[in-house]
Amino acid sequence: MPVAEYEWSETFDITPEVQANFDEHGCFIVRGLLTKEEMQKIHKAVDHSEGITKHSYQIPDGKGRSCGYCIWSHPGDDVTGMVGRAEKVAGYTEKLLGGQEVYHYHTKLVMKEPHSGGNINWHQDYGYWYKNGNLFPDMASVIIAVDKADRENGCLQFLPGSHKLGRIDHVFVGGQTGADMKRVGEAMKIFPLEYAELDEGDALFFHCNLLHSSDKNDSPRRRWNFICSYNRASNNPVYVHHHPQYTPLHKVPNDAILKCENFTDMTGKEFVDPSMDKTVKADLTTFKGDE
């Protein structure tokens, strides 16, 4: 059975049916989670030279290419922060994780440039986050397509249902932490391979143990996406690390995205310094820090 897809509207919610699909497949897609008008705001935010991307860096894929990343610990009050705090992103995720309080673990902008963007190795997010001291896999993420994502430009691939395997051992592959490929190979015999082909504003909600990856980008189109990640407040990490300990999340109504006019003030976001991240090996010559 293919992964469930829904069309977003103001009446969409995490019903028992939606929850059952998430529990069974570890993910589902919501088409049009962000509207065209909201995406215009997002593009203005990420394409602004004095905004988010000046804090980016590259992580090698071990195959001669790399992907660009920009990661921040707290949502902040800019347009991208409104996305991470919105009820239709943070609120839905909170419901999927049992209706218990969640906090913003981090948001990242992943950037695969035309003809050069690298692949992202097979992994589970919890493969990283377990090493950060999160004892339980009470965590989930929302991928939101900033650009159209398809097989040609290296969209996300995933194995629906693979979250039921539990955590798989992870090791370094290039600059990335990747899952044990022998175990991934066995999982591929059981779970069907699917592609998250998304239009701008579409979103994939997924469990932290879902196995996923993405191919390199050989197309003439860039492929950028947001990944907003959340942790249950009850799962406060036992280690202090480069992502935040429990910090109350102040959610906002969905219309806050359109109402926000802040595109460049990054106050309070706390961009991640890749030299402090023990789960990746970044190309530090590309890190611009807080210039």
Automatic annotation (TrEMBL):
Which cofactors are reported in the record for this sequence? Fe cation
| InterPro entries xrefs | Phytyl_CoA_dOase-like
- What is the top-level taxon of the source organism? Eukaryota
In terms of SUPFAM superfamilies, this protein maps to: Clavaminate synthase-like
Q: Which PANTHER family match?
A: PHYTANOYL-COA DIOXYGENASE DOMAIN CONTAINING 1 (PTHR20883), PHYTANOYL-COA HYDROXYLASE (PTHR20883:SF51)
Protein name per the record: L-proline trans-4-hydroxylase-like
Q: Which organism is it from?
A: Branchiostoma floridae
